[in-house]
Amino acid sequence: MSYNTFGRVLRFTTWGESHGPGLGVVLDGVPPGIPLREQDIQPYMDARKPGQSKFTTQRKEPDQVRILSGVFDNAEGVQVTTGTPIHLMIENTDQRSKDYSEIAAAYRPGHADYAYDAKYGIRDYRGGGRSSARETAARVAAGAVARLIIPEVRITGFVCELGGDKIERDAINFDTISANPFFCPDSWAAKRWEELVDTARKDGSSLGAVVECVAEGVPAGWGAPIYAKLDSELASAMMSINATKGVEIGDGFEAARLTGEQNADAMSPGPDGKPVFASNHAGGTAGGISTGQPVVCRVAFKPTSSILTPVDSINAKGEATQVRTKGRHDPCVGIRGTPVVEAMMALVLADAKLMHRAQVA
Fold this sequence. Notes:
By secondary structure, the chain is an alpha+beta fold. It has helices at 38-48, 113-120, 136-149, 187-202, 230-239, 260-263, 333-359, and strands spanning 5-6, 11-16, 22-28, 65-69, 71-73, 79-81, 86-91, 154-162, 165-166, 209-216, 244-249, 267-269, 275-277, 285-286, 289-290, 295-301, 311-314, 320-323. Helix 5 packs antiparallel against helix 7 (333-359).
């Protein structure tokens, strides 16, 4: 059995393969009456799409979104959601399946090839099929719709570490994120990363990265205390992204190195009767429920497994071989993972908002 659906009130199901004719997503649970046009989705697709610099895969995909269902013109002639399932489709236009012919009978180390074959007894070797990161284009489209459900929230994702080189926290400037190909808020770090990624690319290797995502404007009260904790939903969402190997909420693992008094987010009375927090070690959640502080998470992406450097492996007969993956691949998958992390943050928060609205009298 395979699971392709995520969410509780707001549910989305992705479909399609990397080298098939297209892919897409069906969203169910989107409230009616929300203005939605294809041009509302496209800017987020453009941020993720491949081939925009030498530091990402050179596969050229326009990633144009088509809305196939779930919208209609209201009395004012504005296209709005109808409350029925919204079907979004993205065509694949630049597949090169022949690039994968040499690995048709061999398993790529670090990829899902062997595990996928062991589970299903069949696999699409052309770019990984269903397990390809190409699937995340559908998530970004869904996330664009989710953002319209939570207009009060501002979501900002950025790469905070690449190849072991971290940004300087004092140098963070969100205006810099869109000014470089790395989604980096530190202009000096972005300059350093150019050489890091270019060297890895020329060497036929790859690098890992850490993406941080901050959601501002989340009110207190979203989430649940046990099995729908806001932080556990975020962790599940982020871990479902291809190449993710770790997730931190707030200080994450660093919290284990603090004392109780250091880690406590002390509160003082605010002018509106709400608390003013002295810190945000918890990342905007307490007991699985949002506190009103910015929701913060970090996602660790492993180095891209598709590399030109030969790696020992086995073939489908169990015989020793070496695998060298040709084709067009990201030398650092975490870079284009940034819009995906933002999308999953939006989807989780929109779902939490709708669940919270369902309980309010």
